[in-house]
Design brief:
727 residues, mainly alpha, 62% helix
Length: 727
């Protein structure tokens, strides 16, 4: 039967029949039986994975007993799938998620139903678990490349799903004991809930396996000499949970964290310098959060406290240094790169059918490829080859020979396409009257002698410039933006806001002095600037110019015309460039306010104009730019805010032209963070004192936080005082 017809039939059953009362479980099992019989049909197999994902994993309406039955039905199909050739990445990721839910449900089911009847189910679950845990250190479902380093960076999404599965296995197969405060939702299911006399789930075996998985699989990422940021940060986040619930694993985890020094890591061959610097920054930040959280919750054993305090101080100092400077401008004089172990030219196709192209696995541009080996005596050449073969890694040698063999097969099996001669083009014969041509030449000569050819207007008047296409306008605008950003990073860059606040400088005095210097050096520039309502060139004028170019220079009339759409797109280019600049320079609060104030002013002017004209205020860009980009700035600031930056945060909160409910909620939400609660309370106090329009919003948010049971008592007391004082 055709695969498409089978899928159509299954779709009808899924959509219609399964909706009938009492049919869901029965038809789910029957459909999976049909899928298991279609061994050779890839499309039906993929449909089956999606079916289980929708009807089992994503279905939140199922009762607990129904979930267990579906898990048992799904287990057989999951075993069927792992016995097939490798699935595609997306399908395999869904299989892992289904397997994670299946493992939890069946582990609990077997623990509550000891005996021979559940032994086959337990054996299948162990088979599934072993298969998935073994894939964590492989490239499955992708084929391994010629280089292990390259494989570390491939298929990260699958590895993250497998890491989650491993964490579930470790959690369920070990005893739990909460350290400190109780966890919301309790301990969860673990070995605590399994009888010590269980015939299938042996306590000691389970604990040993959990420890082995943690030590030799999960924590191996810390031993690598390179930084795989997504995997490292995700692993550390999982370890925080284990530190809280599994005191028997704290020593192993602390040793792993203690050994992870980003300064001792080398740059991968598959990373740029910028990517390596960012990797160090985010791994350091994650470790810092891990240590701070564990210190606050008193999860760190005494023997590790001194060492962790030293690491924390180093990371805080390093983070402060990075925030005060542009990360990418910090020099790395001792930057080391990992020795490359793969092939520079692993391509399995060659451009020219020559032996040189066939056998070249190193860089094709390497000058050694031009060396003539025939000049080497044969006995020396034989010794060189034998020594090289003896020293070569066997897996690498096999991989190299496979590449060469594949190249040869591709050349031999390449279809020969005959080269057909081009069709001749027949040109129309052009007949020229020699007498007419001679007469024209004589007439031109006479005109030259009389000087009649001279016409000042035609000679010196330039034609009007051609209208630029939209793409050309975008290209020119992109150049303008890049030049302004470049100017900002050079000698006319703005002061570092941190220094301006810490040094307690009088900003007005500083600006006045510099304005005098600027007026001397840029008098002509200043005269031109007055045309765009800017008195003189200052160190932050570049930002104001870009902001006004976006808001005033590319102002629209609110229509749906192509010209307005083009203007909106170009204005968005400017705004995205400004936002990216502030992501890279998070301390430049003054400049953020310059930009956002210009956006607010522009929105207000346009909205007022609409009111006067009795037009609706909802077209294309009106009233949205200020609130849209301010929300993005606040999200970025709150996400990466450090306690040391509280003055900058208050500066931002105080200088924004307008705050709404969304902004207030995001600002006050940092009180929930253990590290930033003091900064959040300070911001709330400022808003209550100096921004009356948002007073009610702030009080509402504080009342919500006060109802949160997880907040510290000291923070609750401070919040209650604020509410009592300003309510």
């Amino acid at each position: 039967m055709n695969a498409d017809l089978i899928i159509d039939s299954l779709e009808k059953i899924k959509s219609n029949e399964m909706a009938k009362p009492g049919q869901y479980l029965l038809l789910y099992d029957k459909i999976l039986e049909v899928i298991q019989k279609q061994i050779g049909s890839k499309s039906i197999q993929l449909w089956g994975i999606q079916f289980m994902y929708e009807k089992f994993f994503l279905n939140k309406e199922l009762k607990e007993q129904q979930k267990v039955e579906l898990a048992i039905y799904s287990l057989n199909t999951l075993i069927f799938y792992i016995g097939l050739p490798a699935q595609d990445v997306t399908a395999f990721k869904k299989l892992i998620e289904i397997s994670s839910l299946t493992y939890k449900l069946i582990f609990q089911y077997v623990s509550e139903n000891d005996g021979e009847t559940v032994k086959p189910i337990w054996n299948k679950l162990v088979e599934l678990k072993n298969f998935l845990t073994n894939q964590y250190t492989s490239t499955y479902p992708l084929e391994p490349s010629d280089n292990a380093e390259h494989d570390y960076f491939r298929n990260i999404g699958t590895k993250l799903n497998l890491l989650n599965f491993l964490s579930i296995v470790i959690d369920y197969q070990s005893r739990s004991s909460i350290i400190g405060d109780e966890i919301v939702g309790g301990l969860g299911y673990s070995l605590n809930n399994v009888s010590e006399t269980h015939s299938l789930i042996k306590h000691q075996n389970m604990e040993n396996e959990a420890l082995m998985l943690l030590t030799h699989v999960v924590l191996k990422v810390f031993e690598l000499d390179i930084l795989i940021t997504p995997l490292l940060t995700a692993t550390i986040n999982h370890l925080i949970i284990l530190m809280k619930k599994k005191p028997q694993f704290t020593s192993v985890i602390c040793n792993a964290i203690n050994s992870c020094n980003t300064d001792q890591k080398v740059m991968s061959n598959y990373q740029t310098v910028e990517q390596f610097k960012l990797a160090k920054k985010y791994v350091d930040r994650t470790i810092k959060v891990f240590i701070k959280h564990c210190k606050d919750k008193k999860l760190i054993p005494k023997q590790y406290e001194i060492g962790f305090n030293k690491i924390l101080n180093v990371l805080i100092d390093r983070g402060n240094d990075v925030r005060k400077k542009n990360l990418f401008n910090i020099p790395e004089p001792e930057l080391k790169k990992r020795k490359f172990e793969g092939f520079y030219n692993p391509s399995k196709r060659i451009k020219t059918m020559t032996y040189k192209s066939l056998y070249t696995l190193n860089d094709p541009n390497d000058q050694i490829n031009n060396f003539d080996v025939t000049t080497v005596p044969s006995h020396l050449l034989q010794n060189l080859v034998l020594n090289a073969l003896q020293k070569a890694s066997i897996p690498k040698l096999n991989k190299g020979l496979q590449i060469i063999a594949t190249r040869y097969e591709n050349c031999v099996n390449k279809p020969n396409i005959p080269l057909l001669p081009a069709k001749p083009q027949i040109k129309d014969e052009i007949k020229i009257d020699i007498n007419e041509l001679a007469e024209e030449v004589d007439e031109e000569k006479d005109d030259d002698e009389k000087g009649e050819f001279y016409n000042p207007e035609s000679v010196y008047t330039l034609p009007p410039p051609e209208t630029l296409s939209f793409q050309e306008k975008k290209d020119h605008l992109s150049i303008i933006i890049k030049n302004f950003i470049k100017k900002a990073n050079e000698v006319y860059a703005p002061y570092n806001n941190a220094n301006r606040i810490d040094d307690n400088n009088d900003e007005d005095d500083v600006d006045d002095d510099e304005d005098d210097d600027d007026d001397d050096d840029y008098s002509e520039v200043n005269r031109k600037l007055k045309e765009v309502a800017i008195k003189s060139w200052k160190k932050d004028t570049w930002c104001l110019l870009l902001a006004r170019l976006a808001t005033r220079g590319l102002k629209t009339d609110g229509s749906d015309s192509p010209d307005d759409k083009h203007k909106i797109e170009m204005a968005r280019m400017i705004r995205e460039a400004l936002f990216k600049y502030f992501v890279d320079h998070p301390l430049q609060v003054d400049l953020m306010v310059v930009w956002l104030s210009e956006e607010w002013h522009s929105d207000m002017i346009q909205n007022e104009a609409k009111k006067i004209q009795n037009k609706p205020i909802h077209n294309l860009g009106y009233q949205s730019n200020y609130f849209y980009w301010t929300e993005k700035i606040i999200d970025q600031t709150v996400t990466f805010l450090d306690p040391a930056d509280k003055k900058l945060f208050i500066r931002l909160v105080s200088d924004l032209p307008e705050l709404n409910q969304t902004f207030v909620k995001k600002i006050i939400s940092i009180i929930k963070s253990p590290e930033l609660s003091a900064t959040g309370i300070l911001a709330a106090t400022y808003l209550l004192q100096y921004r009356p329009p948002v007073k009610e919003m702030v009080l509402n948010e504080l009342n919500e936080i006060l109802e949160n049971e997880n907040e510290k008592e000291e923070d609750k007391a401070t919040i209650k005082k604020l509410i009592d004082r300003y309510a």
